[in-house]
Amino acid sequence: MGARCSVTAFVFMCEAGAEAGVGHLFRCMALAQAARDQGVDSHFLVTGEGADIAKAQFDWDFPIVEYCEGKSNAEIRANIEPALTTLLSRLGTAVLVVDGYSLPFDLVEQAKPLVSCIVAMDDGDKRFVNLADIVVNPAATHDSYHDKSPTAHLCVGGEYRLLRRDFLSLSPRPVYARHGLVICFGGSDPAQLTIPLLKCLDTLGFDTPVRVITGTANPYHEQVSSLCRTLNYPVQHIHNCQDMAQVWSSAKLAVSAAGGSQFELGVCQTPSILVTVADNQKAASLLAVNEGWCDVVDKSLGAEVIAARIANLCTDEEKLARMQQNAEGRYDALGATRILQVIAEVIRD
Description:
Elements: E1 9-14, H1 23-37, E2 41-47, H2 48-55, E3 64-67, H3 73-91, E4 94-99, H4 105-111, E5 117-121, E6 134-137, E7 153-156, E8 181-184, H5 194-203, E9 210-214, H6 221-228, E10 235-239, H7 244-250, E11 253-257, H8 260-268, E12 272-276, H9 282-291, E13 294-298, H10 302-314, H11 317-327, H12 335-348
Parallel strand pairs: 1-2, 1-4, 2-3, 4-5, 5-6, 6-7, 8-9, 8-11, 9-10, 11-12, 12-13
Helix pairs in contact: 1-12, 5-6, 5-10
């Protein structure tokens, strides 16, 4: 599939934790997995909390350099700089991938002469785009970056969605052959919606089997587990699920935080209710709604509204089937391979 990546290594500087969630880490992991398939090693520079999340994944197989968290930009910079400089100097022609909202701009600027190119994973805040050789944002269009990054190569649009390797070889089953509801609000559930939603479903007399997933960085997973033992409907709680591709693709309906998970759901062709918990999720969620395979609810509407929509949709088999049909052919898991092609072309030029 076109040019292969010709660098010695990737260095990923990304955020992960209870506050940042795990989306930054997982999409970087997807790119690292694709790079490894082409014989290119990857190294991750993350906080101790991020390292714990990474190592909790059964398919994690990348070297990690940890740095201490800081309260200010200057402190974060001071903690990262020695490790980053040493790593880049040792690796030679590395590609630097930056993914996070609080990573120091001036440190990335300082690193630019030391790398083959800089890849900025962006969600619309455009923090690093004027430093980047390549900007990745599957939810954006070229017009989104015309003023900020006129010279960067843009990996924008759905073909550049980053999904981990386990989503590559799916054969989605039809809705009638699926079972139950899956609830997952990402790696950390920053809006703390899981427990209120489970309670609201119980109040409604909900009787569809539920599988509730809490992510690695969710600090309330023990409370979720305790609550599940008291509910009147069938429920299974899985913490730090290691096979989300199987979980999503077996669900008749999914309730998920918007963001990276919605791309996974699209590939799995799973009818969904997406809950937006941040402004930068709304554009991609609106696109997904227009595709017809999901509904979107803002977190501000609360657990009662979300529960009511679940109850109505779970019993509407015809609508679920139409939603799944609308997802067919729209998504694949080849975004990482396409980004590697762009990187190879940029370095070659």
